[in-house]
Design a protein that fits this description.
It contains seven helices and six strands; from the N terminus they run βααβαβααβααββ. It has about 200 residues and is α/β, with parallel strands linked by helices. It has a single domain, classed as 3-Layer(aba) Sandwich (Rossmann fold), CATH 3.40.50.1240. β2 (about 50-55), α3 (about 60-70) and β3 (about 80) form a beta-alpha-beta unit.
């Protein structure tokens, strides 16, 4: 089974100042309009036929609709909660500056929340790896030998890579996953492997 992981479109600038996690924030209409070439290149790169999954958050559906406008054949995508962004619980909606200024012994160089932290009412990054990994295994049993496109989120795609490669949560937070990028994983027999990470295409 081949898994094609696409990170959604860039969110609205006002949302970037906050830890939005699994909140349903709007996308940036300006950058979506100016990135037509990237969507066209990605639409041409994705396999067809393929099963398409999105998450319950609107930014993944809107990204898929942009790919349809760019030339990918239409189908109604399935909604899969396993690949939704990390739930930061009571911390969601708080200003990023609150987290950037914290003094922590195990602070990550690229992310203000430790990989081991469980936000109040939310989930840790390790929890996210478990959740995404369960989704990957379910898909591998349901779609053996097929291509599956998942339009997802930066944290969930990092978690998928961590699960596939056996990375610990702290290591996985160092992976860069850009918006409108492509990451490919492949399942062969009982093992996963990483084919490509953070492909950024343009015409």
């Amino acid at each position: 089974m081949r898994l094609w992981l696409v990170r959604h479109a860039l969110v609205a600038p006002e949302a970037l100042a906050f830890l939005y996690g699994s909140n349903d924030v709007p996308i940036c209409e300006v950058t979506m309009g100016s990135h037509g070439g990237r969507y066209a290149a990605l639409a041409a790169r994705l396999p067809r036929p393929a099963q398409v999954l999105i998450t319950p958050l609107s930014r993944t559906r809107l990204t898929f609709e942009a790919l349809i406008r760019a030339g990918y054949p239409y189908q109604e995508p399935l909604v899969d909660k396993a690949f939704i962004e990390q739930d930061f619980g009571h911390w969601q909606g708080r200003a990023m500056a609150e987290f950037n200024n914290r003094v922590m012994a195990d602070r990550h160089p690229f992310w203000p929340i430790s990989a081991a932290e469980t936000p109040p009412g939310g989930e840790s990054f390790q929890d996210l790896i478990y959740r995404v990994g369960e989704g990957m295994e379910r898909l591998s049993s349901q779609a053996a030998g097929r291509d599956v496109i998942v339009i997802s989120h930066g944290g969930a795609i990092r978690a998928a890579c961590a699960y596939a490669l056996g990375l610990n949560p702290h290591q996985a937070l160092s992976l860069s996953i850009e918006n409108i990028s492509l990451t490919r994983l492949e399942r062969q027999e009982e093992s996963w492997r990483l084919i490509s990470l953070n492909e950024q295409l343009s015409t």
